[in-house]
Amino acid sequence: MSSHLPDRRVEPRFETKLNAKVLFKASPQATRFTIKSLGSGLTMVGSTNNVSENGVGLVISARNIDRYLTSVEYTVVVELTLPAGPISFTVKPVRHERVAAGKTDNRYFIAANIVQISAEAKESLLSFLNTLR
Question: Is residue 59 part of a domain?
């Protein structure tokens, strides 16, 4: 990050590698065509780069997912495998970039804010983060 830009993070981020699944589902704003073509959703696997109480940094393998990350037609659900068990929550991607591109390796980094999480999942996430402090 540039030294002249303020860090807008409210909660500390912890570098940690957890297994993650990213599910792109049709949002309430989706067209009938999107709903029909997406079906039950598109799942991709990857891992976390960092985690905080309010957000997550993910690295996932994908060829071209720009439209899924930028269109209001898609909702993004993340499932993390914590030591105590899996949790899931809805995120809003705020930044993404391709970090590897090639014939066999295509990966994206996605920075996302958590926008919807159950009380139980939040409690599990906070317990996990407390082990990293």
Answer: yes
